[in-house]
C-alpha cells in the first residue's frame, strides 16, 4: 500500500467567490451589508497586543457568558466554534456516529453532504416537495440523525416551529440539528425547545445577522449533556479554537443588540422592496425569511444572468445542480446595491429583447 | 439503538491550566514571556472593523505569502490553521487514513493519541530509550504513518536532521510528520528536506517562538501535492478557519523576524542560566533545545514540588503518567520569573530538611 492509498481524498465544499478586485457589488455569500456595531471598534482599541503571547481562554468564557445572557441560557447549554461551519462539523463528528443514515433535504446547505463524506457518515438526501418545502413526515423514521437548515438555504423557506417539534418528538433516539444561520431575518427560532428536547441542537452564527463573518464565530445551544459530548470532541481536536480577538470582539457584538436589530430591520425592508421590484421584472420567487432571495426568470437561463451580472461586477450565486440550476441566490445588500443590481437586470432583460 | 449509542465519546486532551487569578507566574504552557513584536500593535490599529462584516480570505493569502517569503518557499508548499493543533488534527485526518498503525513515541506531545482515538486511527506508541531518546531504527518498518515532535515534548530532546532523513528514506510509503513547535529554540529544522522527500510534512506554530499563542496560528510545509490533499480536507471541514485579525496580525508578526530572533536569544540565555542553577540545587536534567526544561529531583517527588510551587502561585506542568511522573516541565519565563521560581524551589528544598 503506497503513500497515496493512505491519504483521505475528498471533494471539498466550494465557498462563494471572495473577489479581490475593487468596485464589486458582492451579493454572493450572504454577508451583512452593514458594518458590525461601533462597540466592536471600541473593543478592538482596548485589545492588549501584549497579551497575545498567552493562550486564549480555552472555554472562551467571556463570549459564552455574553451568549448566555443574550439568550437567557446557562453557560452549560452553549458551545462556541470558528464559525457555524466549525460548530456543525463538530456536531456531525460527535452526534452522527452510527451506521444508520442521517437525513437532510436534497436541496439545502451544500456543506452537509461534504461533512458526511469527510467523516464517512452514511446519509440520505430527502427531496423537498415540488414547492421546495420540507415535509416533516419524511423525517419521521428510524435514522442516524437529522440536520435541517431553517430557514432553508438557498431557498429561504421557513419551517414553522411546530413542524420542527413534530420531527423532534418522532426521533427521540437521534440528534436533530437545526441550523439557524438565517433565523434572525424573520423566522421563529426552535431555541425554546432545547429545555424540553434532549435531542435538539440549535446552531447559529455571527456571520449573517451580526455582521461579523470576518471574525468566524458560531455557536450551538442544547441540553448540557449534548454540549458536554460536543466539548469533549472539540477538546480532542483543538483545545483553543477561539482566538483572543474573536472572544473579545464577539462579546462586544453581543452587547449591542439594539444595533443588530436595527440592521436586521433595514435588511428586511430592503428584501421586501427588492422582491416586489423583481416580481415586476417578471421574476418568480417565494417569500424569503433570510437575507437573500432565491429567484428565477421564466424565460432567461440563470447562468446567463449570473454571467451578465458578473461582467457588470455584481456577484450573485448560481449552482449548476439538479433542480436549482434555473435559480439565482441573491444576497440582500444595501438599498443602493440592490438598485444597482436591479438596473443591471433591467439592462440584461432589455438587451435580450 | 438509543441516542447515547450514536454519540462519539472521547477522553479529551487536557491543556495546561489557564489560571484566571492575578499575580501568577505561568510556567506551565510554554508560552513566550515576551510580548509579540510592536508591529502587531501597529497592524491592530490598522485593522478595519467595518470589514469584519465580510468573510475573510479563505486562502489566508496575506499570511501564507509572508510565510513563503520568510522560508523561501512557494505558497503552494504552505498550509495554515488555527494553531498547530488544528494543523496537526487536519494532517492526522488527511494522511493517516489506512488500517496500518501509525507510530509515535510513548513519551511525546499528549495530543497524538487523542487525535488517533478521535479519528479511530490505529496507533502504536514506541518506547523512547532509557535516556528518553528516539531510536530512528524503531521507525524503520511498515506502518500507516509517523509523527515525531522535534524537539520532543516534554523532554526537550532534539533528533538531528540526518536521523530524521533516515526515517524518511525508510518510509517512502507513508507520511512522516515532524512537529517542530519548539524548533526555533536551538534545533535544526527538517524543512530543507521537503523538496527532496514527498512524504515529509513539517509543522510549526506562532504560539512559542513568535509570542502569539493568543492568535492561534500554525502552519504545515510540504510538497505541493500533500498540501493540496490537506487543503481539500480543510475545505471539507471549514472554508474559513483563519479570521481577519489572525491573518493580518500573523502577517505582521512575520515582518519582524529581528524582534523574534532577539526574544529567542534571551530565552535561550535564560534557559541555560536556569539549567545551571537547577543543577546546583541538585536537580537532574538534560540539555533542552526548547523553551522549557524537563527536570527531576533525586529525593523529592515531583508532585510535591508541583503542589508547593502552585501554593506560591507558580504554575509548572506535572503529569501523573508512567515513566515521567517524577518529572516537572518548566517553561522558560523572564529572568525575574525564573529567579522567583528558583527561590521558591530553594524554600521548598529547605523546608524539607
The oligomeric state is homodimer
Q: At the fourth CATH level, what is the homologous superfamily of the largest domain in chain A?
A: Type I PLP-dependent aspartate aminotransferase-like (Major domain)
| Helical proportion of chain A, percent range | 25-40%
| Rg of chain A, alpha carbons | 21 Å
In round numbers, the mean pLDDT of chain A is: 96
SSE run of chain A = EHHEHEHEEHEEEHHHEEHEEH
Shape of chain A: globular
Largest interface: A-B, 87 and 87 residues
- CATH class label of the largest domain in chain A: Alpha Beta
For the sheet with most strands of chain A, the description reads: 7 strands, mixed
**Secondary-structure arrangement, i.e. CATH architecture of the largest domain in chain A:** 3-Layer(aba) Sandwich
Query: Which parts of chain A are unreliable, with pLDDT below 50 for 5 consecutive residues or more?
Result: none
Number of domains of chain A: 2
**Kindly, what is the distance between the CA atoms of the first and last residues of chain A, rounded to a whole number of angstroms?**
61 Å
Structural class of chain A: alpha/beta
Q: How many E strands of chain A?
A: 12
Fraction of residues in β-strands of chain A: 5-15%
Q: What fold name goes in the CATH topology slot of the largest domain in chain A? A: Aspartate Aminotransferase, domain 2
Question: Would you kindly provide a written description of the structure presented here, covering whatever features stand out?
Answer:
The structure is a homodimer of 353-residue chains. Helices cover 35% and strands 13% of the residues of chain A. Chain A is an alpha/beta fold and 353 residues long. Chain A folds into 2 domains: 17-35 and 258-352, Aspartate Aminotransferase, domain 1 (Alpha-Beta Complex), CATH 3.90.1150.10; 38-255, Aspartate Aminotransferase, domain 2 (3-Layer(aba) Sandwich). In chain A, the strands form 3 sheets. Chain A has a 7-stranded mixed beta sheet, with helices on both faces. In chain A, helix 5 links the parallel strand 5 and strand 6 (176-179). The longest helix of chain A is centred in the C-terminal third of the chain and has 24 residues, at 257-280. Chains A and B meet through helix 1, helix 3, helix 4, helix 6 and helix 7 of A and helix 1, helix 3, helix 4, helix 6 and helix 7 of B.
Amino acid at each position: 500500500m503506497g503513500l497515496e492509498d493512505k491519504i483521505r481524498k475528498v471533494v471539498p465544499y466550494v465557498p462563494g467567490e471572495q473577489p479581490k478586485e475593487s468596485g464589486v457589488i458582492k451579493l454572493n455569500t450572504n454577508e451583512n451589508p452593514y458594518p458590525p456595531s461601533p462597540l466592536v471598534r471600541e473593543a478592538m482599541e482596548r485589545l492588549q497586543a501584549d497579551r497575545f503571547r498567552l493562550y486564549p481562554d480555552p472555554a472562551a468564557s467571556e463570549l459564552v457568558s455574553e451568549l448566555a445572557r443574550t439568550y437567557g441560557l446557562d453557560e452549560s447549554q452553549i458551545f462556541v466554534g470558528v464559525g457555524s461551519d466549525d460548530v456543525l462539523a463538530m456536531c456531525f463528528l460527535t452526534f452522527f456516529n452510527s451506521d444508520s443514515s442521517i437525513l437532510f433535504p436534497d436541496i439545502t446547505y451544500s456543506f452537509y453532504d461534504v461533512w458526511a463524506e469527510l467523516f464517512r457518515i452514511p446519509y440520505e438526501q430527502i427531496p423537498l416537495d415540488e414547492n421546495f418545502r420540507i415535509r416533516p413526515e419524511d423525517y419521521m423514521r428510524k435514522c442516524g440523525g437529522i440536520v435541517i437548515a431553517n430557514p432553508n438555504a438557498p431557498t429561504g423557506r421557513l419551517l414553522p416551529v411546530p413542524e420542527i417539534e413534530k420531527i423532534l418528538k418522532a426521533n427521540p433516539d437521534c440528534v436533530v440539528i437545526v441550523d439557524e444561520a438565517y433565523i434572525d431575518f424573520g423566522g421563529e427560532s426552535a431555541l425554546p425547545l432545547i429545555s424540553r428536547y434532549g435531542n435538539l441542537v440549535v446552531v447559529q452564527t455571527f456571520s449573517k445577522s451580526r455582521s461579523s463573518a470576518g471574525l468566524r464565530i458560531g455557536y450551538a445551544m442544547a441540553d448540557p449533556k449534548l454540549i458536554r459530548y460536543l466539548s469533549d470532541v472539540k477538546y480532542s481536536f483543538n483545545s483553543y479554537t477561539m482566538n483572543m480577538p474573536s472572544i473579545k470582539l464577539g462579546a462586544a457584538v453581543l452587547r449591542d443588540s439594539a444595533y443588530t436589530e436595527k440592521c436586521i430591520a433595514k435588511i428586511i425592508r430592503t428584501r421586501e422592496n427588492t422582491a416586489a421590484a423583481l416580481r415586476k421584472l417578471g421574476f418568480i420567487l417565494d417569500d424569503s425569511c433570510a437575507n437573500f432571495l432565491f429567484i428565477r426568470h421564466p424565460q432567461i437561463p440563470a447562468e446567463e444572468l449570473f454571467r451578465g451580472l458578473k461582467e457588470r461586477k455584481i456577484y450573485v450565486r448560481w449552482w449548476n445542480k439538479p433542480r436549482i440550476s434555473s435559480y439565482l441566490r441573491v444576497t440582500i445588500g444595501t438599498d443602493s446595491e440592490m438598485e444597482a443590481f436591479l438596473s443591471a437586470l433591467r439592462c440584461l432583460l432589455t438587451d435580450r429583447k
